[in-house]
Design goal:
Low-confidence stretches: 1-5, 7-13
CATH topology: 2-enoyl-CoA Hydratase, Chain A, domain 1
Mean pLDDT: 82
CATH superfamily: 2-enoyl-CoA Hydratase, Chain A, domain 1
Shape: globular
Largest sheet: 5 strands, mixed
Helix content: 25-40%
Strand order of the largest sheet: 1-2-3-4-5
Amino acid sequence: MTATQGTVPASASETRVVRLTVSTALCVTIELNDPVRFNAQSRLLLSDLKNAVRGLFELQPYSAIAALAFSGVGAHFCTGGDLSSRKDASKGQPESSLQDLTASLWGQSQIVRQMRELRMIKCGAVFGKLIGGGVAFALVTDW
């Protein structure tokens, strides 16, 4: 990842639901981009967000990025956990469903912690529904 203007490329073989864009030399944008599911925290969204935040965290010492804009595409910022994937998981073993939920919550807490540790101004463009884990994402922003 480089601190150049434009969208940071992702692997062509995978669908990305988080967009990381360097708007200027001083500002970067993270967009949750799964409007069909109201930017619910699916495994894919959390994985993409984790990778985007990790990339910013690693890039930070070598760049002049001073601000992060954090938003969601579509009518809602983030409606929290993706309950449709939980429903499918619950058809199997209840223990595995609980383990999946625990792993998801742990992963989300790690993303929030790492976002909090970014040494840049974090602005949230929060609109529409904001439920559960989406609230945690909104609260990590400064404005």
